[in-house]
Amino acid sequence: MERIKCTIAYDGAGFAGFQVQPNQRTVQGTVEKALAKIHKGETIRIQASGRTDTGVHAVGQVIHFDTPLTIPERNWKQAVNTLLPDDVRINKVEKVSDAFHARYSVKQKEYHYYVLNREDPDVFRRDYVLHFPRSIDIEAIQAACKHLEGTHDFTTFSSAKSSVKGSKVRTLFHASCEKKGDDMEFIFRGSGFLYNMVRIMVSALLDVGIGKRKPEDIPELLAAKERGKLGKTISPNGLYLWEVSYDEEENDSEE
Known about the structure:
Largest sheet: 10 strands, mixed
Order of helices and strands: EHEEHEEEHEEEHHE
CATH topology of the largest domain: Alpha-Beta Plaits
Distance between the termini: 27 Å
Number of helices: 5
Radius of gyration: 19 Å
Number of strands: 10
Number of domains: 2
CATH architecture of the largest domain: 2-Layer Sandwich
């Protein structure tokens, strides 16, 4: 058996999330369907760095699967992409050792979140950005981002439906927000992320941007460890799993 690692991109607008669900179009189901054709009907299960929700996009999701076939890496990429629809693509294929695991070997993940900050929505980007028409104090948001960096218990910024058992302590290596014209880009890099964590953080940071909260409120929210302190989880449309980083074939636990 060979273990194959793939970096894949997908447009989440047409999928009911990553994970296989009955009678739903999912990224996992679509990729496994293509792999089954290559393996003459045999079921090949894929493992991902993490699951993404309905509407969430990926630029650099990572998966792995085990196969009895011996095919050159370039040919794997071509064979699978030929069988995939236009909204999901394999960008890179590598043969790796059995020590590698797409989820458990993760060292760092990076997410981006995009906001269109103007009065009118863009009909062509409605599935790819959050439309937010209110006036924003970008400097206040940037100050608040600094309070999120470091190692904290992110219970307040995690969905109450989270299935994670045990510690909700995570380390954010980087949190930032930049504005160019009407476009805002949030970037988060961390050791791992809790369910809905990025979307809840962006929601809180936008509250800071409109003056509903102060940057100094972030440490208090972290200390509260109470999801109810924050408002709704915002739209998945602006969220992108950007990059997943690994140590050289080492096992690090994540999520």
